[in-house]
């Protein structure tokens, strides 16, 4: 053991070696300022280990490594070879699925079942982009008989990527997959709450045979390392997933530095709409999954639930029963559905929202308290009879808390659904295909699920009704 790794263990894998350095040029290194920070286990509130912290100088070093790799080797690597490397990396993630999932559960607190699902999706995502690497084509355009006019798809260059803590590995895969497949090099900063799985993943990057500097993974804080990446003059693109206020900061940093390209994926307060004619059992199952999956720590969580008046009382009673059946506790227990929230800060924020719901006079149907006295566990919480202007109906809570309100008809619920500053996702539950398509088209959201919620191919539960989803 050096000061660049530490021996840890998980109930699934037993002992394993956890890298703790910054992964730059295919090596784990200390930060220039030799700073470290503690990583907390959200189930116990105890320190798991310390990792090295990247500061501005380390960001410079990582960006220089990515630039050198881009100019020197990666842009001369054939698309086929890029694809093969990504496919190898996907294979290695599959081979190490248990380890990656266990580290994710340890550090983030998500249940081992969900973590395994996440890593399965990581494998699928990297494989998918590996398949794309040699299928990126330009066009020829007939502009003039005397001219040959064509477009060529070229890599952007060095991509900075900043990810949040709710899906540490999956976010990483979503970001690096398309960037590497299309010939870019990357400096990715993990979230300070959850740096561990990215460092285990980094070992696999080296093992897969990626040239040094192509993918650099650094641990560090937003205001230092993140800000340095977003405003770096030699970073050509910044991709960010996280909170809306930080998204604004990133865009400003890009604008006031080198006008780098920006992609942002920010918050949500997604409506989940249940009509009188819905299959109520199915709807409850998906509404429950939609809000409590990943402890409510999802940007597309179905946190606003609108139920038509004909089934409102029946729905609320049955949903209460369902939510109370969710197993909350030790993430490593195979039956656990909900683990702890990720950090003290998130725990306090969520408890603050619960207090505000109570104070504003919403009805607590179930939950509303912390669970136990150690770890950041919160009871699955349902507020009913929530007015549209209450904070818990307007603001993103990012926890296991939902707000239910009654609606009369389609026109009213479209108005309520669209009365938000977000537009990420939505869900409609009805057996009438005409209603489903009309509402899906009128709700202003990037993704609308019909008769399901947050449904992905990697879901552990296979529902019985056919599902549609409409993406803009
Ligand atoms: P949350 O509030 O859910 O923790 P944040 O948006 O604060 O989400 O964090 C998401 C990611 O953005 C993390 O990797 C964090 O370090 C990073 N981050 C936070 N603040 C900044 C900033 N000012 N500039 C760049 N990155 C930041």
From TrEMBL:
It is an enzyme of class 1 (oxidoreductase). Residues 29-459 form the Aldehyde dehydrogenase domain. It comes from the Eukaryota. GO terms for molecular function: aldehyde dehydrogenase (NAD+) activity. The keyword Oxidoreductase applies. Its EC number is 1.2.1.3. It catalyses: an aldehyde + NAD(+) + H2O = a carboxylate + NADH + 2 H(+). Coiled coil: none annotated. Keywords: Oxidoreductase. The active site is at 265. Pfam families: Aldedh. One of its GO terms (biological process) is acetate biosynthetic process. InterPro entries: Ald_DH/histidinol_DH, Ald_DH_C, Ald_DH_CS_CYS, Ald_DH_CS_GLU, Ald_DH_N, Aldehyde_DH_dom. Belongs to the aldehyde dehydrogenase family. This is aldehyde dehydrogenase (NAD(+)). It comes from Parathielavia appendiculata.
């Amino acid at each position: 053991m050096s000061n660049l790794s530490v021996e840890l263990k998980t109930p699934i894998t037993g002992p394993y070696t956890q890298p703790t350095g910054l992964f730059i040029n295919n090596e784990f290194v200390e930060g220039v300022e030799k700073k470290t920070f503690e990583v907390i286990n959200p189930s116990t509130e105890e320190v798991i280990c310390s990792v090295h912290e990247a500061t501005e100088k380390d960001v410079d070093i990582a960006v220089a490594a990515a630039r050198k790799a881009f100019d020197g080797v990666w842009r001369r690597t054939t698309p086929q070879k890029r694809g093969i490397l990504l496919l190898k990396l996907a294979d290695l993630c599959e081979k190490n699925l248990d380890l990656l999932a266990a580290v994710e559960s340890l550090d983030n607190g998500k249940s081992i079942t969900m973590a395994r699902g996440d890593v399965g999706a990581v494998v699928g995502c990297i494989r998918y982009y590996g398949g794309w690497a040699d299928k990126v084509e330009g066009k020829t355009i007939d502009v003039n008989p005397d001219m040959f006019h064509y477009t060529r798809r070229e890599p952007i260059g060095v991509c900075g990527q900043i990810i949040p803590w709710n899906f540490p590995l999956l976010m990483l895969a979503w970001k690096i997959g398309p960037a590497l497949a299309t010939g870019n090099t990357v400096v990715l900063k993990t979230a300070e709450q959850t740096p561990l799985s990215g460092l285990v993943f980094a070992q696999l990057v080296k093992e897969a045979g990626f040239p040094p500097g192509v993918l650099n993974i650094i641990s560090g804080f937003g205001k230092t390392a993140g800000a340095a990446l977003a405003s770096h003059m030699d970073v050509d693109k910044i991709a960010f997933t996280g909170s809306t206020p930080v998204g604004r900061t990133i865009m400003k940093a890009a604008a006031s530095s080198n006008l780098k390209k920006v992609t942002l994926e920010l918050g949500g307060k997604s409506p989940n709409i249940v009509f009188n004619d819905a299959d109520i059992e199915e709807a409850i199952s998906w509404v429950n999954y939609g809000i409590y999956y990943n402890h409510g720590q999802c940007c597309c969580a179905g946190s606003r639930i609108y139920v038509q008046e004909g089934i409102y009382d029946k729905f609320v009673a049955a949903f209460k029963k369902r939510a109370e059946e969710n197993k909350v506790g030790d993430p490593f227990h195979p039956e656990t559905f909900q683990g702890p929230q990720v950090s003290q800060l998130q725990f306090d924020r969520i408890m603050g929202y619960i207090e505000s719901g109570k104070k504003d006079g919403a009805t607590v149907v179930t939950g509303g308290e912390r669970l136990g006295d150690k770890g950041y566990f919160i009871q699955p919480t349902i507020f009913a009879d929530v007015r549209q202007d209450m904070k818990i109906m307007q603001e993103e809570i990012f926890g296991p808390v939902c707000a239910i309100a009654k609606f009369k008809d389609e026109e009213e619920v479209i108005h309520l659904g669209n009365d938000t500053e977000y537009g990420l996702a939505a869900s409609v539950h009805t057996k009438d295909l005409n209603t489903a398509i009309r509402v899906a088209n009128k709700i202003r959201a990037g993704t609308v699920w019909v008769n399901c919620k947050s449904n992905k191919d990697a879901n552990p539960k296979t529902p019985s009704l056919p599902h549609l989803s409409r993406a803009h």
